[in-house]
Amino acid sequence: MALDAETRDQLIDTVRRFVTERLRPLEAQVSETDAMPDDVVAEMKELGLFGLSIPAEYGGLDLSMEDECLVAVELGRTSPAFRSAFGTNVGIGSQGLVMFGTDEQKARYLPGIASGEIITSFALTEPEAGSDSAAVQTRATLDGDAYVLNGSKRYITNANKAHLFTVMARTDPSKPGGGGVSAFLVPRDLPGLSVGKPEKKMGQQGAHICDVTFDNVRVPVENRLGAEGEGFKVAMQVLDRGRLHISAVCVGVAERLLTDCVTYASERKQFGQAISQFQLVQGMIADCKTEALAAKALTMETARKRDAGHSVTMEAAAAKYFASEMVGRVADKAVQIFGGAGYVADYGIERFYRDVRIFRIYEGTSQIQQVVIARETLKRGG
After folding, report:
1. What's the CATH code of the domain at 172?
2. Which of 49, 61, 95, 291 is disulfide-compatible with 44, CB 3.0–4.6 A?
3. Is 363 a catalytic residue?
């Protein structure tokens, strides 16, 4: 649902102030402790951030894709770990339910997801099924009124906090690829489900990923999401949407880094003048600004196209590919502009350098985006 201009401006202003006044001062603390303060999470719930994309009838804000991307840009102006606290509720952890859930499933789970009382997680990746997501080996065997799940998932965001998992599992082993995969809503408290310890990661401390193991987990038939064999379709449509959200976050991070670079370059003096006066520094700033503008234009245009009901599989992949690569280049130039200061922790630039690296990997690597872009372009004839 698209907000009217005044309401949208109020929402963006509220999120911007929350980022500036509450989140940015906590960036170093969250990175050092690898933990998200409970009071900050509570404030996120009060602001409705857990329900940005949830339909209004279930208590969410029901934002259009364009409005969600505008909010995501603002959220990108601080450590990406903060957004990750509610990111799965807004994106991959909830959208399968929103798109394919029955009325009963939606009524049972969406109000809690929108309020943040239920944390969701998306369990697709496996030890042998990363970029080849159709190679899912986790099995779901029908046994009376339940499916019995066995297998393991890897690098699952927010798994240690999640109350509800959207799980992709193979229901028909005779069908290769995605055709034999189905999607399930799996509550964390079902017997046989276990979550491993959070992994030690390169960046985004405060956001956690874990392994999830299913050992004869009985999932009621009514918890299947969509028809049997539609799991891969569910996953791909969820990822189409999620890629636009990630693209917008990348734009926000790039804009934050640009602001920091301009401030530093204007204050830092060498050879008797601010380094911002040197053309080679100006060149780096110009490159960063141009790429950030291009990424934002592509992301917002694709969001509007999706809101209008058009298929954006190719465009969403292109936005994610360009924006995630772009923010990596911007972070690299930011370290260069800051020089030695960019390499030490006090200024936070090296933290962003590490944080943004994952954007080129999760929700589809850059190479997978290239495959999608080429495939869709060939289908369309150019």
Report:
1. 2.40.110.10
2. 49
3. yes
